[in-house]
Each structure stands twice: as C-alpha cells, then as structure tokens.
C-alpha cells in the first residue's frame, strides 16, 4: 500500500490524497499577484503587437491571448525569490510551446507565428531576469545561447509561412517547424532543469552551512514546496544531495525543532527511487529508528518519521534493495509504530503510523508475528472505537489491511474474537463514503474488500465462523453480492464477498437459503461473479 499522505490531507490520504493538503501555497494579496503577472505579460503583449500585426480573431481564441501563470511556494517572503519566478516563467513558456504544437497540426499559421513570438519573448525575458539575479553556470550559458538562437529561428521561419498559400511549401515547413519546436522544447527543459538544480544547490548550501534555525527552516520550506511540483523535481532534489543534508539536521540535537519539517521533506523526496537510494546510503533507516524509539522525541517528529517509513516501504516502489537494511531495525520500528498508534493524539498521526505498519506487513511475515506479540489487534480495534484517532475511511483502510495480513496466522483468530473483532469487521463491510470524493469512494471500497478478505481467512476457525453467522454476516455478504450500489459497483468487493460467503457456507451449510446457495455457492466462482456483476437493483 502506498503512502496515503495525499489522500488523507484531502479528506481531513495521510497519502492521497489520495491523505487538507500540506502543499504550501503562496499567500499573497490578489491585486499584488495580478500586478506581478501583469508586469511580465504586458511586455510580451507589446512585442506581439509590434512583430505580429495584424492581430486577428479566430474562432477558438483571440490572437493576443495571454497566460497568467501561478507560482508555487511558501509565504510572502518566498513569493519574489528567483525560484518562484523561474517556476512561473517555465510554466508560461511550456504552455505556449504546447499550444504551438497543437496549432501547427491544425495549420493555423498566423496563430503559430504569434505563439512563436510570444514564446520567444517569454524565453528571452526568463533568461534575462535569471541572469540578472544569478551568476549563470557555464554549462547553462551554452543552453541559453542555443535556445535563444532556436527561438529566433522559429519566429523567422513561422513568419515566412504567413506570406504563401503554397500547400507543398507549407507541408515541408510544417515538418521543419515541428523539428525546431521539438529542439526548443528539449533545450528549454534542459535549461530549466539546470537552473532549478542551481537554485536547489543554493538551498542545500543554506542547510549545510548555516547555524540559524530560521535560515535552515526557510530553506527546508522551499525544498518542501518544490517537492509538490512532481516527481521530476523530486529527482533533481534527490540527485543534488538534499536527503543527505536533511538527515544531517535530524542527527543534531540542537536542531530538534526542525526534525518534523525535515522528515516531511524527506518523505516527499522519497516518492522517487533516487530519494530512497540516497536515504539508504546515509543509513537513514537507523536515524528513523532512533527518532521513533526516542521517547523524548515530540509526537510530530515521530509521526513524520512514520511517514518516511510508509513511503519507503510502499509496494509501488520497484527497487527493494533498501529493505535489506530496514529488516535489521524492523523490530524496533514496528514496536515504536504500534506504540504511536496507541498513543496518537489525532487522526493524522494514527494514519501515518498505521500506514507504515500496513506496508511493513506486506513484505515480511515476521512483522506480523511481532505485531501479535505486541497486542496489536487489541490496540487497533480499540483505536477503531475512538473517532479522535480513526476518523476517516483512509485510517480504516490501514487498520483492515493490517488485520487482513495478520489473519493468515492461526493465533490471530482467538485474539480477534476476544476483542469483538468480528463485530468490527461487519461494521467495516458497511463502510460508505460521506462525500462524492473519488478518493474517499475508492478508500471505502478497499475497506469493504479487505474486511471481507479478513473474514474469509479468519473463518477457517470454526468458532469465528459460528460467531460471524450469529452476528448475521451472511445476510450482509449476500446483500453486497446482489446489490451493486452497496459495494459501489466494485468487482473486487464482489469477489471478496463471494469468497467469504463460500467459506462460511462450507462450515455451516444451513446458514444459506436454498436460492442463495443455488446462485452464490453451488456454481463456479466465476459464474457466480458474472451473475452478480450483471444484476440490476430491481433484482434484489
């Protein structure tokens, strides 16, 4: 299971969010933002008027349309820095280049030319402003020069296409322009990556060289902001050594107040393999274990350490090399995580800790045995009764995932019975979204499916099977099989419920009525699935 930070933050995962959003946004006055954007845009508009007369109107848009880009980042003190300007400009240029590709395919030559002029102006403005604010690295200067030449060539060649109706000529020009435009896009992307890497190096230098908590915290905030812009930026950040620098902070007592902030950034960077590799190289797992097991660590730091664990143990990662070092500290980490679940002061802390445990139980059966020894079933079922800790389908998804993985162990059944776990599983079978959010709906489906899987596994024990039948599990399972809306039209929930129903019927055949047995138990599983998946609501 992937780290649910994104969906949780949308719901309240941990994920996604998919985990409200912790992504930092610019909190600036709207008029101030408009003035900043207008300063960039009006210059381009004037050049467009001068170089691309006349400005006509086509059916889909006006020739002089302009793009207002939004920045990313922290608060007012960040809004004007080079990083924000760079990202804002990059978005504008990328959008213009994308439009140009589309208009080229449609043969709208006047639109193609005016877009080329605008893109050229934006690129020149970006290069000029960035160079004025920073000493541009030599390798980046080469890209800048080449890019500016290609942009000018693009403007010139598209202008030639305005003065002819020769289809053969225009066809050959379309191919040439497409090739140049592709080169411009690639060169621009490489230049922006270099510029971002340069800015990221400066932020990392602040973290490495400063003794000021404020300065380091500001640099970490900027890095965290950048991680929200996607995996590509996370890869650049990882390659520049941010993970190494952040763990240096987490190993110094004088920066304890920055642990949570630094670890949150590490978790975001570790959505890409480069980040996990860097974490492994600096023995980051040992540092995480130290923070999780240190009783003097504040809850926020331990929660963010749990988030990193959840991220690096996600089954979605293709590389598992880092898990070898994880196994060495697994007992300590699992123990600390289940304690954090037990003492969590809010739903988000519980979600982070339980998501980490859920992922861990997927890749090593020893983790399940450790959890049973630590009375995990009692702790998790008690948490489900506490709305302060388990307050969303995302949290319930983590709990039922752990229960499903623990249920493969024989000794699990007696502990579930002892803590009225069958009643809880039946309640989870009735989980429904409280909003129209697709992520919440998907989480509810996972809860229903895994509750049914857990029930099926536990029903190998005759006492569990008898208890489930007495608690009317069979009618609920039949309802989920026959009513698509009850299971949110989910095929995975249907399969799990059919399997659970058949397991209960095997132990107590008399618990199933003849008509239900004929349709849901007697046929092959695939035939019952096809029958139920094609049912209309009126059938029930």
UniProtKB/TrEMBL annotation:
Residue ranges, annotated region (Disordered): 1-26
Domain called Protein inscuteable homologue C-terminal: residue spans: 89-540
Ranges where the Protein inscuteable homologue LGN-binding domain occurs: 26-72
InterPro entries registered for this protein in UniProt: ARM-like, ARM-type_fold, Armadillo, Insc_C, INSC_LBD, INSC_LBD_sf, Inscuteable
UniProt xrefs under SUPFAM superfamilies: ARM repeat
Gene Ontology molecular-function annotations: cytoskeletal anchor activity
GO cellular component terms, A-Z: apical cortex
CDD domains attached to this UniProt entry: INSC_LBD
Domain of life (superkingdom): Eukaryota
Transmembrane intervals: none
GO-annotated biological processes: apical protein localization; asymmetric cell division; establishment of mitotic spindle orientation; regulation of asymmetric cell division
The protein's name: INSC spindle orientation adaptor protein
Species, as recorded: Eleginops maclovinus
């Amino acid at each position: 299971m992937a780290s649910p930070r994104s969906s949780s933050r949308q719901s309240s995962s941990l994920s996604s969010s998919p985990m409200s959003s912790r992504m930092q946004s610019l909190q600036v006055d709207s008029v101030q933002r408009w003035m900043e954007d207008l300063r960039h845009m009006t210059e381009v508009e004037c050049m467009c008027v001068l170089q691309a007369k006349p400005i006509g109107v086509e059916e889909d848009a006006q020739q002089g349309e302009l793009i207002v880009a939004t920045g990313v980042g922290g608060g007012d003190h960040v809004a004007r820095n080079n990083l924000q300007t760079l990202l804002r400009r990059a978005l504008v240029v990328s959008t213009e280049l994308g439009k140009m590709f589309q208009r080229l395919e449609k043969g709208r030559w006047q639109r193609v030319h005016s877009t080329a002029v605008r893109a050229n102006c934006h690129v020149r403005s970006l290069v000029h402003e960035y160079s004025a604010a920073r000493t541009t690295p030599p390798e980046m200067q080469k890209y800048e020069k080449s890019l500016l030449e290609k942009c000018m060539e693009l403007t010139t060649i598209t202008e030639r296409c305005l003065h002819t109706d020769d289809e053969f000529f225009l066809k050959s020009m379309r191919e040439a322009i497409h090739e140049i435009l592709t080169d411009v896009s690639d060169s621009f992307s490489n230049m922006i990556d270099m510029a971002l890497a340069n800015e990221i190096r400066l932020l990392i230098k602040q973290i490495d060289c400063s003794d000021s908590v404020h300065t380091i915290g500001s640099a970490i905030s900027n890095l965290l902001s950048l991680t929200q812009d996607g995996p590509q930026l996370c890869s650049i950040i990882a390659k520049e050594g941010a993970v190494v620098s952040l763990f240096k902070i987490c190993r110094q007592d004088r920066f304890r107040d920055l642990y949570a902030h630094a670890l949150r950034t590490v978790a975001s960077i570790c959505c890409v393999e480069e980040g996990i590799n860097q974490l492994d190289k600096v023995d980051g797992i040992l540092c995480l274990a130290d923070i999780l097991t240190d009783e003097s660590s504040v809850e926020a730091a331990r929660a963010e350490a749990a988030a990193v664990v959840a991220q690096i143990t996600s089954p979605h990662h293709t590389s598992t090399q880092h898990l070898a070092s994880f196994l060495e500290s697994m007992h300590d980490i699992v123990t600390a995580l289940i304690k954090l679940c037990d003492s969590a002061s809010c739903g988000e802390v519980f979600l982070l800790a339980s998501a980490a445990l859920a992922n861990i139980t997927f890749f090593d059966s020893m983790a399940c045995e450790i959890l049973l020894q630590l009375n995990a079933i009692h702790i998790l079922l008690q948490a489900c009764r506490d709305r302060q800790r388990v307050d969303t389908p995302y949290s319930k998804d983590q709990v039922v995932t752990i229960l499903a993985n623990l249920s493969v162990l024989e000794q699990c059944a007696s502990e579930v019975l002892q803590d009225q776990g069958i009643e809880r599983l039946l309640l989870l079978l009735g989980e429904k979204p409280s909003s129209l959010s697709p992520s919440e709906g998907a989480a509810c489906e996972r809860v229903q499916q895994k509750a049914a899987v857990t029930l099926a596994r536990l029903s190998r024990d005759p006492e569990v099977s008898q208890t489930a039948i007495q608690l009317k599990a069979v009618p609920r399972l039949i309802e989920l099989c026959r009513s698509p809306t009850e299971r949110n039209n989910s095929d995975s929930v249907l399969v799990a419920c059919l399997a659970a129903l058949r397991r209960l019927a095997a132990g107590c055949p008399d618990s199933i009525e003849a008509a239900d047995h004929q349709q849901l138990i007697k046929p092959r599983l695939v035939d019952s699935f096809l029958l139920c998946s094609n049912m209309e609501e009126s059938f029930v």
